[in-house]
Write a structure and sequence with these properties.
By secondary structure, the chain is of the alpha+beta class. It has one domain. It is 50% helix and 9% strand. The chain contains nine helices and four strands; from the N terminus they run E-H-H-H-H-H-H-E-H-E-H-H-E. The protein has a four-stranded antiparallel β-sheet with strand order 2-1-4-3, sandwiched between helices. Helix 7 crosses helix 9 and helix 8 packs across helix 9. The longest helix is centred in the C-terminal third of the chain and has 18 residues. It is elongated. It comes from Streptomyces silvisoli. This is DUF7691 domain-containing protein. Pfam families: DUF7691.
């Protein structure tokens, strides 16, 4: 079974601030823009919805209003996908072909490559965790992680230090390609003060 990452360039603090904001105008903008996607998701998750999971729009409304949330952990995934939808509306999707799809422990393999270059401030495996805003229910899928502007700045400094020391170890070509894609994400964020990255594994 394969997984994939969706990665967005945005202001993480502002995006998290949308959760529980009660912004009806934003809610309706998303409902209008993503009407087909919402309907498609409802069709895909028809069985889960019949078992009590919220529809895509119901989940989105709960996220923007800070609840109420279903108490059933099996239904919490809908709130994660609703948060991902917020990120896709407010953020810029970044190239992810090195991570879409991927199998097995690929994220850890790329992290090992980053660590070999002495880049430890960020981790692609963090996108596999459940690092959602605190007010949202815990869920395994989708995974979510965040690279803050500060950590991105540190990671780029670490990379430059490794380059200056000319201590880059030999790495597999596909790992190098993935690392270069990560560095591209970070450079895009660094070019916009206050911007970071939020990624989702699904």
């Amino acid at each position: 079974m394969s997984s994939s990452l969706s990665v967005f360039l945005l202001d993480p603090a502002a995006t998290r601030g949308l959760v529980g904001s009660g912004d009806e105008q934003l809610l309706e903008a998303i409902r209008s823009r993503f009407a087909d996607d919402l309907a498609s998701d409802d069709d895909y998750f028809r069985y889960e919805i019949e078992q009590g999971a919220p529809t895509a729009y119901e989940a989105l409304r709960a996220v923007i209003h800070g609840g109420p949330f279903s108490g059933d952990e099996e239904h919490a995934f809908q709130y994660g996908y609703a948060y991902k939808r917020l990120c896709s509306l407010t953020g810029v999707p970044l190239d992810n072909d090195c991570f879409c799809p991927y199998r097995g422990d690929w994220l850890s393999v790329v992290d090992q490559g980053l660590e070999a270059l002495r880049i430890t401030a960020v981790s692609v495996a963090s996108f596999d965790r459940a690092n959602l805003p605190d007010s949202l229910p815990w869920m395994y899928t989708p995974g979510c992680g965040e690279w803050s502007p500060e950590r991105i700045g540190q990671a780029l400094e670490q990379f430059e230090a490794t380059k200056a020391a000319d201590q880059a170890p030999p790495l597999e070509p596909e790992v190098v390609e993935a690392i270069m894609q990560c560095l591209g994400w970070m450079r895009s964020a660094a070019a916009r003060p206050g911007f970071g990255i939020i990624g989702f594994r699904s």
